[in-house]
Structure formats: C-alpha cells, structure tokens
What we know:
The structure holds 2 protein chains of 2 kinds. Chain A contains 21 helices and no strands.
Amino acid sequence: MTARAQVWALVRLRWTLVRSPWIRMGLLTAAALVPYLGFIMLIARNSVEPAALIAAVNAAPAAFLGFGVLAVVAPLTAGGTELVPADQLVAYPIRPATHFLSSLVLAPVNLVWIVQLLVLTAETGFLTLDTRYTGQGAITSIMLVLACTFVGQALAWVVAGLRRSRSGRIGLRSTMVLVALGALVVVRTGHSDDVVDHSFGPAVARAVTAGGRGDLADWIPTTVVLALVAMLGVLVGVHACRWALRRPADRGADRTSREVPRRHTPVSAYQALVATDRASVWRAPALRRGALVLAIMPGVAAAGVGLPWKSLVFLPGLVAAGGGLLFGFNAFCLDASGAVWLASLPHSPALLARAKTRVTAEAVLLGAALAAVLGSLRAVGAPTATQLMAILASTLGCSLLVVALCLSSATRKPYRADLNGPRDSVAPPGALVLTSARLVLPTALLGGLLEGAADAPEWWVPLAITFPVAVLSAVWISTSLRRYDDPFRRSRIVSVVSAG
Amino acid sequence: MEPVLKVQGLVVDFGEVRAVDGFDLSVGAGTSVALVGRNGAGKSTTMRVLGGVLPPSSGSVVVAGVDAARDPARVRAAVGYCPDVGGLIPRATPWEHLQLAARLREMADGWEERARDLLDRFELAGVADRITAGFSHGMGRRLSVVLAAFHEPRVLLLDEPFDGVDPLGVDATMEVVRQARATGAAVLVSTHLLHLAVEACNEAVVLKAGRVVAAAPASELVGEDGRERYRTLIS
Lengths: 500, 235
C-alpha cells in the first residue's frame, strides 16, 4: 500500500470515528465557510475606502511574513499532527511518508492557520484589483501557503529527530535562546520594520502585485521559487520523518525515565489535586511547549509591532482563548486512566472539578496577563485611564469567559488523550478546530466591545461592559461544577478519559 | 455475623446493554472471594460499582454497614480498589500517588512508613520518583495493588491484579491478600487466571452474562476436574 493510499485510509477512519452528527456538520460547514469567506473578501475589495486599501497594501509584506512564521512555529510547539494516535497504529505497517503526509493533511485543521489564510486572501485581493489577473496573483499566494506549510512540517520532523540525542537537544535549546534574544534585541531597538523589509514578505507582495497586473517577468521568478521550496519541503519532510522515526532515542530523550524531585506533602486534599494537575500539565511535552510559546510569543509579537494602547485591548482575549485550547476544554484528560482510581477515593467530586478549574484559570490568566504586560512595553503613546481599564477588563473578563467555556466543554464532551509525546494532542483535530472557534468568537466579541469602549470619556465604561459577562461566566462555572456532581455524568467522563 | 460487603440485585445498564444482571454477593470479614468468568461477563463492571466509580442502575451495595447510595464517600473510604487497566495518573510518580491518596483519605501522620514498606515489598522503591507513564504494564499493576492496599481498607477490590505481573509481584500481591484477610478485611479478586484465583481466595463466584451462575469453595475449582467444571459453567 502506498503512502497516499494509507493516508486516504486513515482519513476515512478518522472521519468514521467522528460519531457526532453535529461535529460532522460543524466540520463540513467550517470547510465550506472558508472558501465562501474568501470569495466574499474578493468581491468586497472594490468597496474598500482608498485610505484603508493603502493601509492594507502596505501591511501585505508583514502579513505574508506572519503566515510564514506561524506556519513554521506552530508545528514545532503543538500536537494535533496525527490522524490517528501513534499508539493505536503500532500494529500496522505505516510508512514514514504516511506520517508526514498526515501532518500535511491536518495542517489546515487549525483556526490560526485558517484565519491567516483568510488574511492572505484579503491581501491578495487588495494587491490584484484587476479581476482579469486575480487568479495569477493568487497562484503566488497559494505557492507561499504550500511552501511555508510544507517547510514548517518538515522542520518539525527535523526537530523531533534532533531531540532524540543530547547534542541535538543542546543545539535546539541554544538556537531557541538565540532566536528569543534576537527577537528581544529587534523589539528593544525598534528594528521590527527592518526585519519585515529584509524578509521574503516584500518579494512575495511584489510578485502577487505583478501577477495581478499581468506582468509575467516579475511574477514568474518568485512564484517558481516558492513552488520549488514547496516541493523541496515535501521531499525533505518525508526523509526527515523517516530519519526521526528510525533514530534511536538516548536515555535523556525520554523524560519518563528521569527522576523528579520529591515535593512536600501538600497541606490539603485540594492543594494535592492542584499540585497533581499542575505537574500533569508541565510534564506533558506538548503542553509545556505550548504554554511557553503562549506565554511569550503573543506579547513579544505585540511589542515588536508596537501596537497602540487601544489595539492592545484585543490581545488578552485571543491569548486567553489560546490558553483554554491548551488543555482546559478537556481538562479531565489530564488524569487519563488514573481517573478511575481517583474516582474511587473518598473526596467530594466538586474538589476535583475545582482543582481542574483553578489550573485552567491559572494557565489562561497568566498567558493573557503576560501578553498584556509585554505588549504594553512598546505600546505607542501614553495610555488613558479608560484604555488601561479596558486592558484590565479584557484580561480578567476574557479569562473568566474562557474558563467558563472550558469547564462547560470539559464536563459535556471529554476526549481521551495521551499527552506523553511531544506531538500528542489534547483532542482530535476536528474537535480542536471547532473548540478554537467556540473559544475565540466570544472572546473576540468581548475584546472588540472593550476596544470600542477604550475611547469612552469615563474610565468605568469597560468595567461596566465586563461586569455582566463576568457574572454570567461565574454562573456558568457554577452550573458546570454542579453538572460534574451528577454521578452518571461523572462516570461517563471517567470512562471516556480513561479508556476512550 | 453481618457481612462486610453485601450486594443485592445489582443491575448495571449501558444504554440497551445489560452488563450486570441481578448480581448478589455476601463477603464476610477475613474472607476472600474470587470473581471469575469469561470476557464481558460483567466482572470489571461489578468491581467498578463496588469501587464507587460507576453508579448502579439498580440494586444495593452495603459496605461495612454503610449504604453506598446514601453515603458514597464513607463507602469509598472503606474500600481499596485496584482497577482492571491503568488506574494511574500518567505524569505523577508513585510517591505523588501515595501523597495524594494520603491527603484525600485524610490519613494520619506516619503514612510515609506504610508507603515505603509497600513500595519495598513490591520492589517499586527504586522508581518511586519516576513518572508512571514510563512504567511497564506489570509495574503499573503492582503500583495499583499498592495504592489499593495502602490505607488497610475494610474491603479490598483487586481487578486483574496478576495480569502481566512477574512471580515476585504475584507473591507480594498474595501476601497483601493474606494480610488483609488476617486483619478482618473482605477481599474480592477478579481475574482470568484461575489457578491464581483459587490460590488467593477461599471462595469463588462464577459470572456469566452479568449473573452469578455458581458459588463454591475455591478448592472445588482446583485440578483438572475443577477446570473442567469451570469450563462447563462459563460455556
């Protein structure tokens, strides 16, 4: 069986495993919505005001670069790249190329990727106003999307292979430190625009523009180079995947064989549960990396761009949603098969749910607050009292909203998840994309409202907007905790997270 | 004398599937009962109900005089349960499992000595600070038995405790069962390994399609005649 046939078989199996008709409908709707939104953007481009059009065209290089950075960084930090968990495929002769092609198939099943794609669609539309040549310009954008996505996945497999030896891990950590320091220097010295100017962003924007006016001489070279990079990405990716999977891991690659420092016995049952959950998050490679990226990257990016204070109001909500997506919406999966043992211990069920809520809240709030603080380091101008209050309200309100959404999801629709490997995912890919939409839309709405309120003359307006949301979220959390009190629902959660 | 564990008319339904169909059982103090039967006979589901993990659809479970439906927390305090598979938090160490159990069971100071003793007996002391995700199946089983026996429960429930366990681990488990019986606990062992079941227990209950089809002294299932009788009962 060829790798392509194996991927197709796995895709069909994955689709069969989506039992809920609602999730199937949601996934199909999302799949249809993306091209529809892209089409709407292309139609609407001619009605955009000239000033906004100029601003959008000027932002095009940064948008192309942004897509590239996210397409490369995302596979390095998070899981969700397996159509079927690896431990369920050990008995089958799955080819390395199948693993790599599976990760390519799943790359678009990611809300950030989709949103970025829509941004690129809009930018392509703005750069190719002559409708006769829009398709030509779009080919360049498509080649960029393919090249960045394929290279990102290939790089993720190279990194997975390097992590299997001590020298590889040291090299990777050194590289990460150097990249982080470099980013810090760029941000502190205000050279963010120079980075964009010297990246592939302007060249791609020029090629899309050239394609859009039918200028083949300027269009062909960049487009061909992007196509070659995409092909190279697939070739390198297949080989990197084969290399990474066959490379023997040394003792240090497997954290499960290391001893962890013994901690003092927590003072209460609740503290013991919280400590266990924190350890479960931090000792899961995929969650640890995701948490670090979420804590640092959005804030550094915001500082790099130098957002105005008003725009900064929107950021904590998005980061809070990302924090919830890390593990909170499926928080009970942290216990895995230990959930059965925990359920047999004599404690109030609410205690366990409260511990999960607290650890979720810590991850969400910490990420949102850190993004707001880092983003404010290079925010443009001096903030007004209302703007500061709007940022605070956005951080607290969106965090509370995300925790409420997560706890509701965790008690209604749990998933089994093995989080022992660096590429393991907290839920199946389809569930991840639907949940990310469920978390992002309400927080974006609240963030948008608060961003508007940041211009209000009275400082208390953002708090007044957030208050009812906070109350509703608190009520929602309380309802979810009561739901967990139901022994039948609880036993279903235990059954799902412990066995599947 | 009042039995330590008394189950009457236990029924467990999963949708339209009846997993346990009117299960009755009485286990006295110092008695160990083997729960045997084919795959899908309802052994593990019964154990999950007795362990307080799964609520029954109907029927009653009384542990040490306490009705599980009225006071499930007190019942769970009296029970030590080793689940059939896994049963361990993957990224916690054995010592952290014991710390958590000590806190949730409100055990008095000095629990550490009992914990160290059990880890030593099951040869897990050397890996007490390694996360359990890296454990072999047998090591996981041994730790599950340790956690079930840790607080010296009135009712010890061991579901497949010998599965994948080496002979030394089997001996340690047998010793735990003997000690539990000696201290007046009721022990219920569910296993597919008939020879170990009859060695560990003095009574045997055979389950088929969620119902008890036979209850007899474990000695009656020993030898070729006993095995033949068992095969006849479950087929």
